[in-house]
Design a protein that fits this description.
It holds the Pfam family PAS_3. GO terms for molecular function: protein serine/threonine phosphatase activity. This is PP2C family protein-serine/threonine phosphatase. The protein is of the alpha+beta class and about 800 residues long. About 40% of the residues lie in helices and about 25% in strands. Strands 3-2-1-6-5-4 form a six-stranded antiparallel beta sheet. A six-stranded antiparallel beta sheet has the order 17-18-27-26-23-24, with helices on one face. The chain starts with 15 loop residues before the first helix and ends with a strand. About 35% of the residues are buried.
Amino acid sequence: MGTQRGTNPAPSAGSTPDREATAIGRLASTVEELRCELERAQADTAGRALIEMAVGVLIERLRCGPTEAAAQLADLADRSGGSVLELASELVNQAAADRISAIAGEFLAASARPVDPAALRLRRTEADTLASTDAPAVAQSMLDHALRPLGATAVAIWAAHPDQSLSLAGGAGFSEAEAHRWRHVPPGVPTPARRALDRRETVGHATIADAQLPSIGSLEIGGGRLALPAGSGGRLVGVLEICWPDALPPRSPSLQRQFEALAKLAAAALETWDADPAGPSGHADTGFQELRQLTDGLLDPCLILSLAPGSGDAPLQFAIDHVNPAFVDFAGRPGNAIVGARLLEAYPLAAEPGGLFDAVEHTFATGEPFRAQNMRLSALVDGVPLSTRAQVAISRHGRRLAVVWRLDDGTPRVARLLQHAQRLGRIGGFEENLLTGQIAWNETLFDLHGLTPSARPVALDRLADHAHPDDRPAIERFLRTLLHHRRPASCAFRLQRPDGVARHIRVVAEPVAGTDAQLSMVRGAYQDISAQHWTEVALAATRDQLAQSEQQAAERARLALQLQHAIMPPAHGPLDLPDLRGAVRYRPAEKDHLVGGDWYDALTLPTGEVLLCVGDVAGHGIEAATGMVALRNALRGLAATGAGPAQLLTWLNSVTHHLTDSVTATAVCGLYHPGTRRLRWARAGHLPPVLLRDGRAETLPQLGGILLGAIDHADYEEGEVLLRGGDTLVMYTDGLIERRDQSLQACLNSLVALVEKASAGIGDDLEAHLDHLLRYSGADTDDDTCLVGIMIR
């Protein structure tokens, strides 16, 4: 008898619970198996990341490809008898030479119980951090790989915000409800994490209950707490808080370094973490574009700074990413010259203690806003320090900083004026440290010396090598006064530039003593005075030429005066003429260079008539004097022909026009016949004579006649007057009557009145009469004056 295959006996009613228990156990076993597989997959992922880093090290060292490097790593592990993962950890430790690399040996030597290698556990955590941007996953990796072996049961990663609040970026070991309750910590709550940030150091409490500080999981995990500031590049971004179920274990130096390494990994995770904008914390890292829009709306100058690429832990370097439209540089530079530069490149004097850079660094590290009502800002304007006072506010926005300042309105204007003054004056400043040999030049100075900005500046003791050899003694005296006698000094020399161009330079410098009263520094300025030098040379040549011209003019004036005085002396005795008494007066010009062409003549002709004439050649100087001699002598010769006054002037006009060099003149000519007492006269553009009769004076009629030399032929009108005994006739040149503020007719009227007045007071003394006219004449032209007077007996 057999049984039928493939059939199962019918289950009994009492076997149902057993079947359910079997199913539940099978399901639990499956879940446990899947969990183990997940943990192995996570470990394998971290291990593969570590192995990939080791392969990269071998590629760099062996100069080989990835496949060959992986094969080499496996071969080395096989030879050493260890696993590939352990060898990869050792290679990465050697290449990194960082904090994690130094932990393993110390930690194993200090711990008696068997544990996994510390470096390997930290490298696994580092691999998880690099492979994930999820802060909770990083916290879980820290707890599983690095902290559970140390007895810790929970870990929290806190993100710090500028308003002193905290957000729970990631946690492990806490219940979901506890993590949700502590997702945001408002400002002012004294948690261990807050104290670690405020003190900027590790804060430990034996038990959280004894510390009496609120914190995450304090009701669930009441043991020891350790809070470490988490920073990157000198900037604190959060806190790593570790929880133990029991009292805080003793902290050895090796353990402390391991915890600090974990805090750095937490900071790396926070750099890529963003809070949920919809969450209650509301502290998402503000984007650059949003920050730009915010600062561009400000009315005060604002800079946006960020940590410069490649900036190490210390000293920090900040780059200027943006300036708003209202930005005003107190050094007078445009905004496009600031953007892209590092803060200390644009404002090197900001590094002074307690200055702008310290405030920026503090805000970047702690997130605490900074305000100052009267902060000193300093900059270098072409090597010249410039300082001002301003209200400054600094705030951190995610990974960037906003620096707002309010300047004195006059500061940028002064800076621009200084720059323009240096540019227009071609002045370059310098500073030379005599102890270190360091020399600082501004850009203008390189240009003055014909050097590129990258060239080595010329030291003062080498200045003579770049100057003209003849200027070496002057430079040596300058250096001796400056360096030996320690007094400010200046010197002008000819600079021989490398491009062959010679420039005239003036250097001015002053010594600067150090704290020990020893000469430590020299500062001063060079100025290009080439234009000034050549101007002075031109002026000197002009002065020499002017002096020569003045000498020649003075010589010509002296000769003209001698010639004039030889012909017409200023003083002349009485003239003894037939039937009349005559007198002449000549008053030279008050200034030698105004020697003119005024002339007179009074002589008896062969015909028995008396020639009376006065004339005035236009102009001054030797030409006027020689013209006067020519006309006077020509008229004397023409008068010997016996022709009348009009004919004489006609001939004299031709002589003036053809035989002289562009000379023009005025004249009045009279012929007196003693027997008939008849006076015939004519005028060529000259003032008419004045006749005094019986105490009454009047001018003779205005006869027609053009001035001499104007045209080649001219006819002149002739007049006649019958004189009587006691009559006085006065002939004169315009220097006797002309005034700048009166018309010619008014001047004639004044002369007529003066002649009558002189006659009433003096009588018939002709010499005294002429002297009175010269003395009381109202003329103000400083011109020569000729005066001829005759009195009928």
